[in-house]
Amino acid sequence: MRTVIVVGASLSGLYAARELRAQGFDGRLVVVGDEPHRPYDRPPLSKDFLTGRSGEDRLALGDTEELAELDAEWLLGTRARGLDTRDRTVLLDDGRTISGDGVVIATGASARRLPGPALAGVHTLRTLDDARALRAELTAGARRVVVIGGGFIGAETASSCAGLGHDVTVVEAAPLPLVPQLGPEMAALCAALHRRGGVDLVTGTGVAALRGRGAVTGVELSDGRLLPAEVVIVGIGAVPNTGWLAGSPLALDDGVLCDDGCATALPQVVAVGDVARVGGTRAEHWTSATEQPRIAVRNLLAGYTAETLRPLPYFWSDQYGARIQFAGRRLDTDTVRIAEGTVTDGAPGEGGLLALYEREGRTTAVLSVDRPRPFMRARRELGRGAGAMEAVS
Amino acid sequence: MIPVCRLDDLPAGESARVDTMPPIAVFNADGELYAIDDTCTHQDASLSEGWLEGCLVECPLHAASFDLRTGLPTCLPARRAVRTHRVTVDDGVIHVHVAAEEDTAA
């Protein structure tokens, strides 16, 4: 292979570039990124970066020296608008084309937006530029903030805003946030953290409209209530960036469809990170974005799926001074048992807790609030168990 | 020189966190004592709560791994070393000698 094009210059794109070099690819390496920035880490954007505890220097992934060693051509601020798979040519929005022997699709996902005209004061939080804009607004004095969506981004952002002294309300359309991820019992415990942080949580009602002319003044809920707001943060999920692949023969369905080895149906095209639906699952997790590139690159260089992976899902969230960690694959029918710690007033007690999800006598998943050590042990055991199960199945 | 705890209270495989500024983690790795800065250089997590295996400790948040002898990361996502500190045992009590900033491994 003489030329490999990595489309996407974020976490998984950078890891793919690293893996290409680590696995011996010494040809031309081109990395295309639609943002003007060098690769950076997103998790701090809703937390330490937003609150001003850390600056942009702490977000950089890879220093100048390492990036130089990668010996890649960085086409930043350049959006890919098409892929011609016959000769693996990536078309760029500035009219240029790059042809390669291999393509790594790492275009990530974009924040889902509310329909309607753009209003000042309405933000999403996905990119560094999003975070810069929101941070600037939050430092301009105390505000009434409404966060739409009670998922991890919503909860973390609400927590950061409350920490900065703003008056914060979170609106969640479902009766309880985080149920798909954590199940109802544990979702209820985590939802109670909002109260601890002094944030109002409004559930079971959607958003009918944003109010305001030019700048937002409030959020009108489906049940008729009006929440006044000068700042609105829309945290209602993300959509995989596959639009540029329309018309290509790649199978697209909520992501780029791949086998368990991150390989598409086309030889020499692999996908990693938030945009990739690997073995039927699309995971918007930091850990997936860092684990998939090793396998994807191995298979890209081999020219066939030589190795597959089915890592144990893992994610974490920091909110209201609590660190939530979850690993495993739970089903709604699993029972939940609090193995360590206590519940106080409907929320994790001081000292946190460790909960095990169980099915027919075995553990399927583990949730921890501020108990990193036993969580790590349980996560490792789960990983071993999952590996053993796959080996026999 | 900061007293940490009695040697008897830190058996092999265990760790202790010292609330200095910044905090320090002390490990008993199969009988050898090591002290490093407690905070992972990648992102805010306490290494004293990490996974100890031989002379390596794995961060409980993102699985970055550090060599207790040198403070150097042995894998991503951490890229910068943690400071290492000298440890002594006097009268059965573990003490940490906090290194100056310039002692940090490159």
UniProtKB/TrEMBL annotation, chain A:
<dbReference type="InterPro" id="IPR050446">
    <property type="entry name" value="FAD-oxidoreductase/Apoptosis"/>
</dbReference>
<keyword id="KW-0285">Flavoprotein</keyword>
<dbReference type="GO" id="GO:0016651">
    <property type="term" value="F:oxidoreductase activity, acting on NAD(P)H"/>
</dbReference>
<protein>
    <submittedName>
        <fullName>FAD-dependent oxidoreductase</fullName>
    </submittedName>
</protein>
<dbReference type="InterPro" id="IPR016156">
    <property type="entry name" value="FAD/NAD-linked_Rdtase_dimer_sf"/>
</dbReference>
<feature type="domain" description="FAD/NAD(P)-binding">
    <location>
        <begin position="3"/>
        <end position="292"/>
    </location>
</feature>
<dbReference type="InterPro" id="IPR028202">
    <property type="entry name" value="Reductase_C"/>
</dbReference>
<keyword id="KW-0274">FAD</keyword>
<dbReference type="GO" id="GO:0005737">
    <property type="term" value="C:cytoplasm"/>
</dbReference>
<dbReference type="Pfam" id="PF14759">
    <property type="entry name" value="Reductase_C"/>
</dbReference>
<dbReference type="InterPro" id="IPR023753">
    <property type="entry name" value="FAD/NAD-binding_dom"/>
</dbReference>
<dbReference type="InterPro" id="IPR036188">
    <property type="entry name" value="FAD/NAD-bd_sf"/>
</dbReference>
<keyword id="KW-0560">Oxidoreductase</keyword>
<feature type="domain" description="Reductase C-terminal">
    <location>
        <begin position="314"/>
        <end position="386"/>
    </location>
</feature>
<dbReference type="Pfam" id="PF07992">
    <property type="entry name" value="Pyr_redox_2"/>
</dbReference>
TrEMBL record, chain B:
<feature type="domain" description="Rieske">
    <location>
        <begin position="2"/>
        <end position="96"/>
    </location>
</feature>
<keyword id="KW-0001">2Fe-2S</keyword>
<keyword id="KW-0408">Iron</keyword>
<keyword id="KW-0479">Metal-binding</keyword>
<dbReference type="GO" id="GO:0004497">
    <property type="term" value="F:monooxygenase activity"/>
</dbReference>
<dbReference type="GO" id="GO:0046872">
    <property type="term" value="F:metal ion binding"/>
</dbReference>
<keyword id="KW-0560">Oxidoreductase</keyword>
<dbReference type="InterPro" id="IPR017941">
    <property type="entry name" value="Rieske_2Fe-2S"/>
</dbReference>
<protein>
    <submittedName>
        <fullName>Bifunctional 3-phenylpropionate/cinnamic acid dioxygenase ferredoxin subunit</fullName>
        <ecNumber>1.14.12.19</ecNumber>
    </submittedName>
</protein>
<dbReference type="Pfam" id="PF00355">
    <property type="entry name" value="Rieske"/>
</dbReference>
<keyword id="KW-0223">Dioxygenase</keyword>
<dbReference type="GO" id="GO:0008695">
    <property type="term" value="F:3-phenylpropionate dioxygenase activity"/>
</dbReference>
<dbReference type="GO" id="GO:0051537">
    <property type="term" value="F:2 iron, 2 sulfur cluster binding"/>
</dbReference>
<dbReference type="InterPro" id="IPR036922">
    <property type="entry name" value="Rieske_2Fe-2S_sf"/>
</dbReference>
<keyword id="KW-0411">Iron-sulfur</keyword>
